Amino acid sequence: MRIEKTLEKIGFSPNEIKVYLTLNGNGSTKAGRIAKLAKIDRSSAYNSLKLLQEKGLVSYVNIGKVKWFQVTGPRRILDYIKEQEEDVRKILPQLQAVHKTKKVEGQVRLFKGVKGVRSVFLDIIRTEEDNFIFGSEGQFSERMKEFALQFGRMKKEKGIRTQNLIRRDRSELDNETTEYRYVPAVKESPAVTNIYGDKIAIIIWTDEPEAIVIENAAAAKAYKSYFDFMWKNGKKK
pTM to 2 decimals? Predict the structure, then answer.
């Protein structure tokens, strides 16, 4: 199931997966037998073979008047993904230009799950703005330890500094790019607020974490003024 799920994630259709795995497991095979082994109809098998050939993942040879199909080798999948990445890189400048001109001030976005939260932290890196945090209970370090360490390294490379207001009995992994101050009489909370550039990211560390990102310069400025007041009155370690 892991193989099928991975192939699905990179854009294979269910029938493409069946055909590809059939060929990968049986070697050079005729279309009719591929359809039978994959348990799909003949027309679906031909269509999937055509799509896999366009991806460069399947080739064929003519023996007499019959086509015998075979996969080009599993490592070709990595080449296919790299080619897609290169294609996306070519159109990114144009997409970014349109995104900047059409962006609506005050937009709010919701991200779900660990991958969604991860994308928010990567956005902090992309902005290359210092990050100001309050409400952290160490959830990032505990729930995403490996990525938290990677995030710390990326911050260091980009010169991003963090100021983090936490409770006295809390500790975090990042002591190299982060300065901490402690606030008394603060109750434990699953919600952590990050302020960076013109954005506010509120990460809610429930069983399935969620993040709300507000992109609004005035709101970010207001949040930052509250943070500055709390920071000024916080205690150093």
Answer: 0.60
